[in-house]
Design brief:
mainly beta, globular
């Protein structure tokens, strides 16, 4: 059963998977790069001065805020639900595609590709693509109890930190 939040999905994440390898001239090389395309419903936390809100990149303590000369950004905390996923190749237009040409599966439980600390690319609303990190991919109860009831109906809770570097 598809989540009732699916019609409000406002984010897509692209999570790299290990590609297949082959031996070419004595070296192992990737033959294709595959990704998981994750469809999400997310909300951005926009509070300053708290751990769940915006954090300046770079921090003022990092070389007086000049660690990235000419660039500055805010790292935000995004939380919501992972709703559907599909496996795609690296040349798939994961941002603008209408998704009618791929088979999407409902996220009904914790998946291995949503492990905490996984590095991802994601788009949120109309914003440019950001680099992010999955911080948590289980519910308040760690995937047990009421989470087991919520996952198949709504989706799996996911929390991401991400930043867009502005020049």
């Amino acid at each position: 059963m598809a989540s009732p939040l699916l019609e409000y999905a406002n984010a897509r994440a692209r999570i790299p998977l290990q590609g297949r390898t082959k031996n070419a001239d004595g070296r192992y090389v990737l033959t294709d790069n595959t990704f998981i395309l994750l469809i999400c419903y997310l909300k951005r936390a926009q509070y300053t001065g708290v751990s769940s809100g915006s954090r300046k990149i770079p921090l003022p303590s990092e070389l007086y805020g000049e660690m990235l000369p000419g660039a500055s950004a805010d790292e935000f905390y995004y939380r919501g639900y992972a709703l559907q996923y599909a496996q795609v190749l690296d040349d798939y237009d994961w941002i603008d595609s209408d998704l009618s040409d791929i088979t999407l599966f409902d996220v009904n439980g914790s998946e291995t590709f949503t492990r905490p600390q996984s590095k991802i690319d994601f788009s949120f609303g109309n914003q440019p693509v950001m680099t992010g990190t999955i911080q948590r991919s289980t519910g308040v109860f760690g995937g047990k109890g009421i989470d087991e009831v919520i996952y198949p109906v709504i989706g799996v809770e996911i929390q991401i930190t991400g930043a867009e570097i502005l020049v």
